[in-house]
Amino acid sequence: MPAEPTGGARTHRLRVTEVIVENADTHSLVLQAPPDATDRFGYRPGQFLTLKLPGTDGGWAARCYSLSSSPHTGEPLKITVKRVIGGRCSNWVCDEVRAGDEIEALPPAGTFTPDSLDTDLLLVAGGSGITPVLSIAKSALSQGTGKVALLYANRDDSSVVFRDELWGLTEAYPERLVVIHWLELLLGLPGVDRLAAVLAPYADRDAYVCGPGPMMDVTEQALRSLGTPARRIHRERFFSLSGDVFDVPAPSAPVAGTDEVSGSVRVELDDETHTVPWPSATPLLDALLAGGVDAPFSCREGSCAACTCRVVSGEVKLIRNEVLDEQDLADGYILACQAVPLTERVEVTYS
Fold first, then answer.
1. Which of 238, 285, 217 is nearest to 48 (CA)?
2. What pLDDT digit, counting tens, does each position of 100-141 carry?
């Protein structure tokens, strides 16, 4: 299999132990971490892995795929990949990967995960958006005490992924799980009013929504019309990475338009404290990695929130932000991959 180790401290070679054909367009890969990295691949329900895959012109590409397994059921690590028309990486995974192959990956990342598994949840998925949603559902049912309502939208009956697994969950948890299938071939595209009517009994729950953008927009509008506060509606965004996130960079050149500041950052991570130089206008993540701090990251493009941390003192500026809302920013949360310093000394924490 064409995969070369980069030597990055945070990457590991995962062995494919099984390939599961879920349907004509979707394959699941059962993965095994090396013995010395098992603890690095502990994860929370709803998180994803970033894989290094063959790209164009003999190069490499990074792609993020959600985990469909649950960390609470004893099942092995498993991601699920759906073909994308013209998508080189997704089609390569579905066509070429076999049991015994190895794939280089970053540890699990992502913030699309419940704070508690003991509260009642509303899960809404469209198409391949079922992948992280299934992980959350299995975790809540096996480990938690709350009830789960899952609305799953697909084009038609043949498009439904994890049909047998969902049926098995409804059989195992008849008093706690409700699964509602929305098939466009029969019901048409979900609109705000019709969707609100279906979701009304569950509007007081924390909602986790994953799927195509228009479907998530309609779902959020429906829930807001029912009075669900924005803070209780959580969306997972699918995105493609434009660069190679696996190489550890040297401190970058100053970003145009950013004040010239050269100082240091004190960071608390995994119950340890580090102080490293923070060159002027260098993104915080780059400074931490160059300083030997094993800081979490995934996309390095301001799109996934895997590198989120909180400013304790000092000031920073975000070059780009697609995931943190106004309340997050007001609470001091930043994206390490997009933060540059505005003061000589800054202190941040990942706790």
1. 238
2. 999 999 889 888 999 999 999 999 999 999 999 999 999 999
Taking the CA atoms of 197, 200, 202 and 204 in sequence, report the sign of the dihedral they define.
positive
| Spatial distance between the Cα atoms of 108 and 41, rounded to a whole number of angstroms | 6
Q: Answer for the pair 94, 81: CB distance below 8 angstroms, yes or no.
A: yes
Of 1, 25, 27, 26, nearest to 14 by C-alpha is 1
In whole angstroms, what is the distance from residue 347 CA to residue 315 CA? Answer: 9
CATH number of the domain located at residue range(s) 12-105 in this protein? 2.40.30.10
Q: How confident is the model at residue 253 (pLDDT cuts 50, 70, 90)?
A: very low
The residue extents of the domains of the chain are 12-105, 121-236, 263-349
- Asked whether the beta carbons of 136 and 222 are under 8 A apart, the reply is no
Which are the contacts of 68, defined by CB distance < 8 A and separation ≥ 6?
A: 28, 78, 79, 80, 130, 131, 132, 134, 135, 162
Helix (H) or strand (E) holding 95: helix 88-96
The two tokens of residue 255 are 């970003």
Per CATH, is 263-349 categorized as 3.10.20.30?
Answer: yes
User: What is the bridge-based pairing of β-strands 345-349 and 263-269?
Assistant: parallel
Which value, in Å, is the radius of gyration of the alpha carbons in the chain? 21
Count of Cβ atoms closer than 10 Å to residue 61 Cβ: 19
**Model pTM above 0.90:** no
Contacts of 73 (CB under 8 A, 6+ apart): 138, 139, 142
CATH of domain 121-236: 3.40.50.80
